């Protein structure tokens, strides 16, 4: 494929939302997936009940968690939230992630969501990262310490993980897993948005968005 070639979006990407959802952690990911032609649908415990993000934004979800099936999705994004650190309130979202991984559908978890996956045993045997190794070590049931890596974000097969300060690296891993950009374009995207490298801008301008093709 050429440098501007891209994977064709098919099934929607599903973004988990719940009260105290950390708005900033997935903004790059969802904005640029949308620009590349993906549909982003929000998933919560109940579709008819709005949730309020950590930034005070109210979201009316598109879909209830119980109705989400891996076969209808390209990716499940689990966002960070204070609720991940206050018991097992969000455990059903970790259970849904288990369904996705078992079906071979990617899951991307950032910040506190990695703790929820740790408690569910979903990080064991998979290379992963988070805010800090000590953060995950404190999670009941976690046995994945040998597979923890000190990087901004990492992908192991169908699982993407990142810490709370790395929304751009998180997006990069998601884009790579979904083959949203050719490698040279993805590298330029990351250099521009993470490193403020102005030299990357012409590369991105040469990669037509779907609406321009």
TrEMBL record:
InterPro entries assigned: Class_I_gatase-like, DJ-1/PfpI, Prot/Nucl_acid_deglycase
Source organism superkingdom: Bacteria
Annotated DJ-1/PfpI domain residues: 13-175
Keyword Nucleotide-binding: no
Signal peptide as annotated in the record: none
Keyword DNA damage: no
Entry protein name: Glutamine amidotransferase
SUPFAM superfamilies tied to this protein: Class I glutamine amidotransferase-like
Keywords assigned by UniProt, alphabetized: Glutamine amidotransferase
């Amino acid at each position: 494929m050429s440098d501007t070639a891209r994977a064709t979006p098919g099934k929607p990407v599903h973004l988990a939302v719940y009260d105290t959802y950390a708005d900033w952690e997935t903004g790059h990911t969802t904005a640029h997936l949308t620009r590349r032609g993906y549909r982003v649908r929000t998933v919560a415990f109940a579709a008819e009940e709005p949730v309020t993000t950590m930034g005070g934004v109210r979201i009316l979800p598109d879909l209830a968690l119980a109705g989400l099936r891996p076969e209808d999705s390209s990716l499940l994004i689990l966002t960070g939230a204070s609720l991940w650190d206050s018991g097992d309130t969000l455990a059903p979202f970790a259970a849904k992630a288990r369904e996705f991984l078992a079906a071979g559908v990617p899951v991307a978890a950032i910040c506190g969501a990695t703790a929820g996956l740790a408690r569910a045993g979903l990080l064991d045997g998979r290379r992963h990262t988070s805010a800090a190794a000590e953060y995950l070590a404190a999670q009941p049931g976690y046995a994945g310490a040998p597979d923890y890596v000190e990087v901004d974000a990492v992908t192991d097969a169908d699982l993407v993980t990142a810490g709370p300060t790395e929304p751009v690296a998180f997006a990069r891993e998601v884009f790579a897993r979904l083959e949203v950009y050719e490698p040279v374009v993805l590298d330029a995207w990351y250099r521009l948005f993470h490193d403020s490298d102005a030299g990357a801008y012409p590369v991105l301008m040469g990669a037509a968005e779907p609406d321009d093709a």
